[in-house]
Amino acid sequence: MNEYKSGFVTIIGRPNVGKSTFVNRVIGHKIAIMSDKAQTTRNKIQGVMTQDDAQIIFLDTPGIHKPKHKLGDYMMKVAKNTLSEIDAVMFMVNANEDIGRGDQYIMEMLKTVKTPVFLVLNKIDLVHPDELMPKIEQYQSYMSFAEIIPISALEGHNVDHFLNVLKSYLPEGPQYYPDGQISDHPEQFVVSELIREKILQTTSEEIPHSIGVNVERMVQEAEDRVRVEAVIYVERDSQKGIVIGKGGKKLKEIGKRARLDIEYLLGSKVYLDLWVKVQKDWRNKSHFIKQMGYVEDE
Ligand SMILES: Nc1nc2c(ncn2[C@@H]2O[C@H](COP(=O)(O)OP(=O)(O)OP(=O)(O)O)[C@@H](O)[C@H]2O)c(=O)[nH]1
Ligand SMILES: [Mg+2]
């Protein structure tokens, strides 16, 4: 009989390449929010995949970019810190885009990593198979990879094959987490992320990057209902107006979409109370960033 395999695998890549989409697919639940906006993920999100022969803990990380404020600095630290004490690295890139400076920067970092690095070309549903080989050669001219695997995280193409290859690289090890545990984040954090996701989906331009969501209270209000009170922070008065919308229409829409997801997460009816507040330049205020739950690991 084969021994049980387990390990920690970090996913590194530029913003928007599909890291969170991949994690949600292999976990089979939505634990990391996704959007078509760059820099969606701000924290390290741990997703636990448990199978009969292996347990793999995937670390979804913020996309690597040049930080423009303290929150960005924090996000980059989070991503880079995941490169130590892991068993493998997934370097995820867009199969339908050319290699960029961000990718080169990441590969410079990865050259010093001791564990196997996999080049994962995501979004192959968007490219013709003939276009893949030249892309792969470009990446190979920078560094060598343990394996190179094209996938589509969105549609699931080749994901099982990738997982089998990945498993073959992992050490024999224990099942770290019990069956059924899929994430390491408390519900409160996931709830605030679901609200943030709905804002990302319904707003554009500067709003997605300027918002922070803090769940202040979650109480079982009635036997079948949870009351969630959350504050959406923006950086300027004008942004507050945009998030609330004409006659409160936008905020209502955000609240409705978020409530449905939260009800699904909690398995209970939810009363969602949303407030919008201005906190000038919050992304540069260390104490506020901490208060919002962006706290560095010791
Ligand atoms: N066509 C296609 N789109 C994909 C695929 N994987 C992800 N996407 C889309 O790419 C966008 C970004 O996906 P995310 O999973 O949020 O990307 P991310 O790498 O986590 O982004 P950050 O958190 O900002 O670093 C979303 O609109 C996804 O639906 C794929 O395999 N094919
Ligand atoms: Mg993400």
Structure description:
The protein is α/β, with parallel strands linked by helices. It has 2 domains: 5-169, Rossmann fold (3-Layer(aba) Sandwich), CATH 3.40.50.300; 187-292, GMP Synthetase, Chain A, domain 3, CATH 3.30.300.20. It contains 10 helices and 9 strands. The strands form 2 sheets. A 6-stranded mixed sheet has the order 2-3-1-4-5-6, with helices on both faces. A 3-stranded mixed sheet has the order 7-8-9. Helix 4 (132-140) links the parallel strand 5 and strand 6. Helix 6 (187-202) runs antiparallel to helix 9. The longest helix is centred in the last third of the chain and has 18 residues, at 249-266. The structure holds guanosine-5'-triphosphate and magnesium ion. It comes from Staphylococcus microti. Residues 122-125 are annotated as: G4. Monomer.
Secondary structure blueprint with pairings:
Elements: E1 5-13, H1 19-27, E2 45-50, E3 54-60, H2 70-81, E4 88-94, H3 101-110, E5 117-122, H4 132-140, E6 147-150, H5 159-169, H6 187-202, H7 207-210, E7 212-222, E8 225-234, H8 237-244, H9 249-266, E9 269-278, H10 286-291
